[in-house]
Design goal:
Order of helices and strands: EEEEEEEEEEE
Shape: globular
Number of helices: 0
Structural class: mainly beta
Largest sheet: 7 strands, mixed
Strand content: over 45%
């Protein structure tokens, strides 16, 4: 069992940045992926980014500039999501997820979920 706890959300003005954190209670020894998802009010959940236990990132949301950056600490217990140039459309609950099945942008592939951290962007 893995517990995930997100933090770092808040209310920011458009154009600002945030770094979200996801702390895991343990890191499995086997293949393991962590991902960030978000869900805006009235919209479906969408995947943002994925990182492997080895630190290799991939992104599920296309963006021209590096709006999202996923990373992890050296101990691999904490995953980060930096969001640059925040816009009101980025307002959502951001969730951390974890699982060992592979690098998927599909939430059904992840076994463990955190409670989420709210990001609210005002214009």
């Amino acid at each position: 069992q893995v517990q995930l706890v997100e933090s770092g959300g808040g209310s920011v003005q458009a154009g600002g940045s945030l770094r979200l954190s996801c702390e895991a209670s343990r890191v499995p020894d086997t293949d393991y992926y962590r991902a960030w998802f978000r869900q805006a009010p009235g919209k479906e959940r969408e995947a943002v980014a994925i990182i492997s236990i080895g630190g290799s990132p991939s992104y599920c949301i296309d963006s021209v500039s590096p709006k999202f950056t996923i990373s992890q600490d050296n101990a691999k217990s904490t995953t980060y999501l930096r969001i640059n140039n925040l816009k009101p459309d980025d307002t959502a609950m951001y969730y951390c997820a974890a699982g060992g099945s592979g690098r998927y942008c599909d939430g059904s592939k992840y076994e463990y979920w955190g409670q989420g951290t709210q990001v609210t962007v005002s214009s």
